[in-house]
Design a protein that fits this description.
Blueprint lengths: L2 H22 L4 H23 L4 H20 L3 H25 L3 H6 L7 H28 L2 H10 L1 H11 L1 H7 L4
Length: 183
């Protein structure tokens, strides 16, 4: 099987399963979350089996989906699953902030520096932009789940946050081109 297709399947398969069960059950999170957790664990297992490692971001996301999904089911309270994106984005922002102090360079450079070659100033600017972006996503998620219906939040999580992230990433291309080095 094509590796890129398998990556796509392990990244988005659990989400498709979540949507199927959510809408098939009449929009019931308690019914949609258990298959979502199982599909996430299966996807992580497939990644481990094929790669013999799981990327840290993917692993963290899987752990938090399982943890917050389980809390949502156990306490019969959707707030736990609502705050998962907020917590993930805050953790990513803090990782970029504090990673700088442990590595003596922008932490984003440690994460993706092998695929992009930028000047030190470029890495600093890119790192700061992602920090602000993650905090903005956290705030946006809080606003949406606190002011909108559950169905709106479910759809926003995928059809809102994902495109926003792609658009933000696309807007970084000019910065990357400006600070690109010829290594």
């Amino acid at each position: 099987m094509n590796k890129s297709f398998l990556k796509f399947l392990t990244d988005f398969g659990p989400l498709v399963i979540f949507f199927y069960y959510y809408y098939d059950s009449g929009k019931d999170l308690k019914i949609a979350i258990p298959p979502f957790i199982v599909a996430t664990i299966i996807a992580l297992s497939i990644v481990w089996f094929l790669e013999k490692k799981i990327p840290k971001v993917t692993l963290l996301s899987g752990v938090l989906i399982t943890f917050f999904g389980s809390l949502t089911i156990y306490f019969n309270n959707p707030v736990f699953i609502y705050i998962k994106p907020t917590i993930i984005n805050i953790l990513f922002a803090f990782a970029l902030i504090f990673g700088r102090y442990f590595t003596n360079e922008p932490f984003l450079k440690k994460l993706i520096g092998k695929s992009i070659s930028l000047t030190d100033e470029g890495w600093e600017v890119l790192n700061k932009r992602w920090i602000y972006f993650f905090f903005c996503l956290a705030i946006l998620n809080e606003i949406v789940w606190r002011t909108q219906s559950e169905e709106f939040w479910v759809n926003f999580k995928v059809w809102g946050l994902l495109p926003i992230t792609f658009i933000f990433t696309a807007f970084q291309v000019s910065l990357i081109n400006k600070y690109k080095t010829n290594e």
